[in-house]
């Protein structure tokens, strides 16, 4: 799971750097310095993905990726509810619904893959 999640965040980082205009379109207006934040979050996604698969940094990577995923949720909500059409992305609820519902799963997976939590697969004590 850790490697899959790291690959997911690397892909997101590529998107942040390759097509920042698409991400800027879905960023709420109240976000200050949005272009710079999109650049920095793309770089963060790369660094956190590497940290997630590096034992000494894994715990911190999981915590920060979970917090990051909470912080980008408003952009996903804004994109879904704002009627924002972005070329190459579907605009139906068949896209937005699962994407919004997946956010808690991404938060959980970040924490679980990093060993921050073990719910619901707790190890049995002997």
Automatic annotation (TrEMBL):
<feature type="transmembrane region" description="Helical">
    <location>
        <begin position="101"/>
        <end position="121"/>
    </location>
</feature>
<keyword id="KW-1133">Transmembrane helix</keyword>
<keyword id="KW-0472">Membrane</keyword>
<keyword id="KW-0812">Transmembrane</keyword>
<protein>
    <recommendedName>
        <fullName>DoxX family protein</fullName>
    </recommendedName>
</protein>
<feature type="transmembrane region" description="Helical">
    <location>
        <begin position="60"/>
        <end position="81"/>
    </location>
</feature>
<feature type="transmembrane region" description="Helical">
    <location>
        <begin position="33"/>
        <end position="53"/>
    </location>
</feature>
């Amino acid at each position: 799971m850790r490697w899959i999640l790291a690959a997911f965040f690397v892909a997101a980082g590529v998107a942040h750097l390759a097509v920042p205009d698409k991400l800027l379109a879905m960023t709420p207006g109240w976000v200050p310095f949005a272009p710079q934040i999109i650049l920095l979050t793309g770089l963060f996604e790369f660094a956190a993905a590497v940290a997630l698969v590096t034992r000494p940094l894994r715990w911190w990577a999981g915590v920060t990726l979970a917090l990051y995923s909470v912080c980008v949720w408003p952009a996903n909500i804004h994109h879904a509810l704002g009627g924002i059409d972005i070329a190459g992305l579907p605009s139906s609820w068949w896209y937005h619904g699962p994407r919004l519902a997946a956010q808690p799963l991404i938060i959980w997976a970040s924490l679980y893959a990093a060993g921050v939590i073990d719910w619901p697969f707790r190890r049995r004590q002997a």
